[in-house]
Design a protein that fits this description.
- The protein is of the alpha+beta class.
- The radius of gyration is 16 Å and the shape is globular.
- It has one domain.
């Protein structure tokens, strides 16, 4: 299980299009490199910590000790599959079920999304901005505030996503 804090770090959001123009990007396999910084105390409840895999728990414990906290940037690269159905539903670039997104602006080349995520006694709010420099290259930024257990943490992220091809293979 992914925690909301980890989901916030990824900061890959979406929008429900309504009357707005859909974000013009290709579907298929995407690779994203995200760099983020965190400030404050990681709001992790003991119940949530107990549900993490050993690898996730180690990352969270390192963050709690300050190794990934208080302004030290961390970078992660991963692959994801973007489908037409995701774009149509407004879940582009987001596979996090705990989060809901509301579009602020949506054009074929720019997308600004307000995100709200809630799970295990933690709540996060923020904004993610996407810029499609082409249909196969997206850059963006995000800012989130996470509250829970009497602690507050903010995350700031930048990311680059590039389209790798139409076939996602085994990547979901």
């Amino acid at each position: 299980m992914r925690s909301v804090a980890v989901a916030m770090v990824l900061l890959l959001g979406s929008a429900a299009w309504g009357e707005k123009l859909p974000f013009n990007v290709k579907t298929g396999l995407w690779e994203t490199t995200s760099t983020h910084t965190m400030q404050g105390e990681l709001p992790m409840s003991p119940e949530l910590m107990a549900k993490l895999t050993p690898e996730q728990r180690a990352r969270v414990e390192a963050a709690l000790k300050g190794e990934a906290n208080n302004g030290k940037p961390t970078t992660r690269t991963y692959k994801s599959c973007l489908t037409k159905e995701q774009l149509d539903r407004g879940t582009a670039f987001n596979n996090t079920k705990e989060c809901t997104e509301t579009p602020v602006t949506s054009t074929t080349s720019k997308l600004t999304v307000k995100m709200t995520c809630e799970t295990e006694g933690m709540k996060a709010n923020g904004t993610v901005e996407f810029a499609a420099l082409s249909s196969d290259y997206v850059k963006g930024t995000g800012h989130m505030t996470v509250n829970g257990g009497g602690h507050t943490m903010t995350t700031d992220s930048t990311f680059d996503s590039k389209w790798l091809g139409s076939d996602c293979g085994s990547v979901k």
